[in-house]
Each structure stands twice: as structure tokens, then as C-alpha cells.
Amino acid sequence: MLAHAGAVGQAGSVALSPAPALAALLLGSGTLHFATPKPFDAIVPRALPGNARTYTEVSGVAELAIGAALAVPRTRRLGGTLAAALFVAVFPANVQMALDWLRSDRPAPAKAAALARLPLQIPLVVAALRVRRGA
């Protein structure tokens, strides 16, 4: 039943737990790291040693594992903790993407989107910590 997904709000709507949404986001993103790795390779900060593809694959595995942990109630607390850490850890890649896009010949809306993406890490970290607390 839908009521089991979260608390019922004042107007009778159901407030969904962020755990399923974060799990879906991470499972989808983790899958994309392997299905289409080149965009992820491109945003690996160049200051990191080694091969960009290795970072793409390691972060893809981490996203899949953390997404699975969030999907299972028994491991959700750990999943929330790890998701918050992951969202902080990948922030430098988002900064690299924003810098690259600002220096490119991409259209202004794309450049704005790359910049707007940076503060979106904050609600992701907050949602992950909420999952941790609520597990």
C-alpha cells in the first residue's frame, strides 16, 4: 500500500521517504557510469593521479552498492551515511565540469546549468542524512 511509503501529509498526500528516490538516483547513475562512461571520464578532476576511467568505474561501483544499500531497509542507515559521503566526494567532479563548461563554447544555458548543479549537492547530502536518521 502507498501509505507504507511515508507519512501521510495534512492534505492526505503521501510524503515519500527520500530513501527510494536516492536509491533510484544512485542505481541509475551507477549504471550510466558503465553504459556511457565517457561523460564521467571527462569530469574526473585532472589533478587526480591515474586513469580517469578507473575513477569512473570505482565511483560507478560505489553508486550501485550504495543505491542497493539504500533500497534495503536493513542496510539503509549505512546507505544513508555512505550516500552523504559520496555526494561530498564527487563534488570536485561537479566543479571540474562547471569549470570546463564555462571555458567551452557551450551555449549560455548549458553553462548556467553546470553552475546551478553545484549547490544541488546540498539537498542530496541533507536527504542522505535524513535517510540515515530515519533508518
From TrEMBL:
Domain of life assignment: Bacteria
PANTHER family given in the database record: DOXX FAMILY MEMBRANE PROTEIN (PTHR36974:SF1), MEMBRANE PROTEIN-RELATED (PTHR36974)
Name of the featured protein: Membrane protein
Organism: Rhodococcus olei
